[in-house]
Amino acid sequence: MSGLLIRPRIRPRVAVVLVYTAAMCMNGLDSTIVNPALYTIAGDFGRPLSAANTVETAFLVALAVGLPVAGWLGDRFGTKRVFLGALTAFTIASAVCGLAPDLSTLVVARAVQGLAGGLLTPVGMTLLFRAFPPHERMKLAKVLIVPTALMPALGPPLGGLLTEHLSWHWLFFVNVPIGAAAVLLGFFGLREHVEGPEGKFDTVGFWLATPALGLLTYALGFGPSQGWTRPAVAVSAALGSVLLVAAVLHQVRAKTPLLKLRLLADRVYGSASALAGVTAAGLMGVLFVFPLLYQASLGASALDAGLSVFPEAVGLMLASQVVDRLLPKLGPRLLTVPALLVAAAVFATLVIPGVAENAWSVRGLMFLIGLVLGTAVLTVQISGFESIGPADMGQAMGLFQIVRTLGGALGIAACAAVIGGGHVTEAAADPGPYRTAVWVTAALVAAGAVIALRLPREAPQPPPFDDGDAPPPGEGLAAGEAPAVKG
Length: 487
Hints:
Elements (H helix, E strand, L loop, with lengths): L11 H19 L7 H8 L3 H4 L1 H24 L1 H21 L3 H29 L9 H25 L4 H4 L1 H15 L13 H24 L4 H23 L13 H32 L3 H7 L2 H20 L1 H18 L9 H25 L9 H27 L12 H20 L36
């Protein structure tokens, strides 16, 4: 017995759920947890706040840069290999961030975190959706909602708590044991899938799409606070837009494109991707502008304003239960359209004079936003890939994440433009512009209801030959048994 190598037998689908949830929680938390600590980080390194802001700049830009190539890498080298490689890099970079002796080291390590995070989300969702056929994906609502809703909402209060009572270094150290455990579990429990992309790597598409997304993310992220006319922001926006147009034209004509834009021609997937962009714009826009309105109306502190929107995360958590129960009965269209219309009405209610001045009204409405808009978002995310086959799943996930990321950034930028001047750090005495910006987000969500009419009426059904007894492909295989490799 001593000469035998004994490996733990882990059900592949259980391993996928656990590893995906752990990795996405780390990624979601790190997108917001550092914000409350920037003043402290700047003070510790003796640098101005503007220099410390590069910690977040590096993360966000690198995140966008990783998205275009994620699908191709997963297909070429295998989703398990790429996912665990990115998770390992993210975990090591987290340790380096916590140990950083100077700001330059911290910025570089955050860039590595962002690049790894840009790979984790689409490749991780590819693993998840390949493990569950369309008719079983309703079960994933509870899995998807935790990293996408709860973790980003917990980031600011947790970041402030750790910074105040321990140190900002622990914002990154918390990732290390979680990441190490997830990598170990994934190594033994995940199954490999190599799709084998056709043709050579699209070098031209890479050098067009990658800098385009990075530059646009920089411009959209920092235009509101630094001003749209600042040279770095203006040049990034102009150059990023030109490169994006060139990238789209190239991808459409290329024989083997980096991003398969033709997938957007599919009625269900194309509608779901458009909805992802519109709803992200509305949600990120209202979460950006409403705390400013709250401060303008009540003179509340930034902390109070941030806590006022936290019930939205609680509503999102409950939305996972709603989708799990109602999607099989109502279908995507009948569940999504009313949810988006109700969400638009709730957004509009926030701007009624007197509502923002009542703290409990705000908390209740924010809870409703999370509940109804979360129901729509989860429904779209689960049902939008019904018509996508396993061969295109990696590409579809990468494209979906790109649209959603740009949609959220555009929503924030649109609200900042309505507020005026691009400077939103000080609450104005007149809450009028902030109310107008909330109206914009309500209009975006209402427009999503029109797009949702293109979603299928019926929920995905099991194949007619599925007797419910045979396990799905790959289920029951122990780690080390023959992997599913195509190509």
